[in-house]
Specification:
Number of strands: 12
Helix content: 10-25%
Order of helices and strands: EHEHEHEEHEEEEEHEHE
Distance between the termini: 57 Å
CATH class: Alpha Beta
Number of domains: 1
Radius of gyration: 20 Å
Strand order of the largest sheet: 3-2-1-4-10-6-11
Number of helices: 6
Bound molecules: uridine-5'-diphosphate-glucuronic acid, manganese (II) ion
């Protein structure tokens, strides 16, 4: 079973290190196709080089978000590019499992043995999710009956983007991720027509954390004021 690992990414100082780190995890995974969709108006050669050096089969997509999105109070992150990746995946018949892996998450390689088992819709815990520290399906008698998540919202599926996988056989042609911050996962899963009864718990009945929602600090840039004397080019005023 091929895993289509969909990574939305965007230009910032952390982009190259995040993708480098992620590529060094994914390169150990057999049967993985990496779909990287960059929120940028062109394919970045540095991103391309990371993909090539990973040795993985990959698809590199340029998919900038529409500028109107920046006007929203809560900007949905990574939606335009995930939608572009979905369009590529459904552009021809493919078999396998779809997984959304953000560029800043951390993965245990056992995750891939688990998500490969997905027959329809699988779910599993995600570590480092806001106040509760973990987001996970809640099970009773081996069946998912609800969710432990610090932000339930008005959601059928209170899950993180990294907490589920879908078999492409059950990806509805009209499946779409909404431009609604906080409701991307739930909206996407509902647009597929999934219900709670469809959920297959993985990771030893959701007792293991195999992926973490790690977040990196973006370093603040200091404005360098360079004072150039006619003969001394080495005075950088605010480095003192
Ligand atoms: C959380 C969820 O894990 C995301 O899947 C979800 O899209 C997001 O919240 C949301 O609902 O707003 P979080 O860690 O808060 O994610 O956000 P980021 O890691 O900054 O962004 C999620 C993904 O989208 C990343 O892969 C990031 O590279 C990408 N992104 C972010 C873009 O492609 N464009 C942007 O402008 C910002
Ligand atoms: Mn993140």
């Amino acid at each position: 079973t091929v895993i289509y690992y969909v990574t939305p990414t965007y230009p910032r100082p952390n982009q190259v290190p995040e993708l480098t780190r992620l590529s060094h995890s994914l390169m150990h995974v057999p049967g993985l196709h990496w779909v990287v969709a960059n929120d940028h108006d062109a394919c970045d050669p540095r991103v391309h080089s990371i993909l090539q050096r990973s040795g993985l089969p990959f698809t590199h997509i340029s998919s900038p978000k529409p500028p109107q999105l920046n006007l929203l109070r809560l900007m949905p992150r990574g939606v335009t590019n995930r939608r572009a990746a979905l369009r590529w995946i459904t552009s021809e018949p493919r078999q396998g499992v779809l997984y959304f892996g953000d560029d800043d998450n951390s993965v245990d390689l056992d995750l891939f043995d688990e998500i490969r088992k997905t027959r329809k819709l699988s779910m599993f815990p995600v570590g480092l999710i806001s106040e509760y520290g973990v987001s996970s399906p809640v099970l009773q008698g081996g069946k998912v009956i609800g969710f432990f998540d610090s932000w339930p919202g008005a959601r059928r599926f209170a899950v993180d983007m990294a907490g589920f996988a879908v078999n492409l056989q059950h990806l509805a042609p009209a499946a779409a991720m909404p431009y609604k911050a906080g409701f991307e996962e739930d909206g996407f899963l509902k647009s597929n027509g999934f219900t709670l009864e469809d959920v297959e718990p993985l990771a030893d009945n959701c007792t293991r954390v195999l992926v973490w929602h790690t977040r990196s600090v973006i370093p603040k840039k200091k404005q360098l004021k360079v004072h150039l004397d006619s003969d001394r080019l080495d005075k950088f005023d605010n480095l003192r």
